[in-house]
# Entry
Amino acid sequence: MRNKSYKKSLTIGIIILFIGASILPVISGKINTLNFDKSTDFTNIANNQEKTYITIYAFGDTLTKEKKILIPTNEALKIYNDFEFMTSEMAQNPLSDKTQILKNNFVDLLDEKDLLPAGITKKDYLSLLTPNLLKESKDQEIALKIYNLLTNLINSIKNPFFNKVVNIFKSRFSDTFPPPVNPSVIGTATYCSVAGFGYGSTHPIFITPRPRILLIWNAHVGDTWVGEIFTDKGFYAWGTQIGTALGFTGGGMTLGIPLGNLFAFGGYAWYTSILANYIHYNPQ
# Structure
């Protein structure tokens, strides 16, 4: 029981100690961070034949496991570079075949260098590099195929013709949707949940809970939350904004009050794009 609890909450730490500098990559199921001394001359480090200690930490609920070895500095640098490249690809394309290969290769490298702590398997490490939604899915292969299919579909229709169609909709309702004042930031998401409210309006005005090709909203002051379902990525938009949700399923409405129109909506969309005054991404 203790072993199951340990593996369930497992996180990993990797510490690479160079002469006069330190690098601390930390891997977890949701967050990848990387801190290092930017003044370090990695070219000189690579040419330095001295050895470097690398320590792998695995943190559980009640105990900590670690593995520390001494290896040539150039090998430590390779582990660092592979880790940095892998985490960058995970952030940009978390479910791509390339990302899966990089994760497997990185864990194989740790195993090859005998860096896995006792009792921690390659499977344990790989599980931390998989989004929680897919870890809990009974059929990861189907989930990946659906995600890739929808992503390819969205990318195929994000072309000049599609943009013209959206612009026609926006111009058709220009009286209802006056252009936002100085919006300067664009946020986009694929296969996502989206919810927003504020002073403004939506088209259609009444959003019944059924699939629709397009939802447009305009806010003089508004707040909108968007989160990708398969990647843990998303953003928060606020201020003056105009948004478009393609393939939207959900509900909402616009209400007329003496001070203006209020709107609120929530649901899911294949693709969402928002032009707003401010957008905050998470993770950044």
In short: The mean pLDDT is 66. Strands lie at 11-18, 21-27, 32-36, 51-59, 64-72, 185-203, 206-228, 234-257, 260-282.
